[in-house]
Amino acid sequence: MIRHALIFWIAVSLAVLGLVTGIMDYGLGWLFWTMLPTLLLCALLIYAYRLTQKKPNGPGRSRPKVKPSQKTMAKVAGVRKTQAAPGKRKTYPFQVIEGSKGKNDEHLPKYH
User: Fold this and answer.
1) Which UniProt key words apply to this protein (predicted)?
2) pLDDT tens digit string along 30-40?
3) What angle do CA 56, 59, 62 make, to 5 degrees?
4) What is the pLDDT of residue 84?
5) What is the 3-state secondary structure (H, E, C) of the chain?
């Protein structure tokens, strides 16, 4: 964490040093023309990002509410009734079949 912070602050201080040196050598016009492509690129990326974001309930995009039919509600109610209570165990049609190899007490763990 500290390593990342150190790298970040070194990069920020070098960027500030470069901006100050550039302004001192070439004036504020240099800063504008140097930063213009970067600012345009950032603005373009923000605009593209906002276009791709979906606004489900934005103004003018309201969707009408659809009331489910009685048949659909009956199906949902039937599914809810058939679900088992969370505390009960389900019975599975599987069973453990003992293998043909004999059990060896040497390989069994002493503590479970």
Assistant:
1) Membrane, Transmembrane, Transmembrane helix
2) 888 888 998 99
3) 55
4) 54
5) CHHHHHHHHHHHHHHHHHHHHHHHHHCHHHHHHHHHHHHHHHHHHHHHHHHHCCCCCCCCCCCCCCCCCHHHHHHHHHHHHHCCCCCCCCCCCCCCCCCCCCCCCCCCCCCC
> Is residue 19 within 8 Å of residue 31, measured between CB atoms?
yes
pLDDT tens, 46-63?
Answer: 999 988 886 665 555 566
Q: Which residues contact 57 (CB under 8 A, 6 or more apart)?
A: 63
User: Tokens representing 88?
Assistant: 């009960």
Could you tell me the pTM of the whole model?
Answer: 0.35
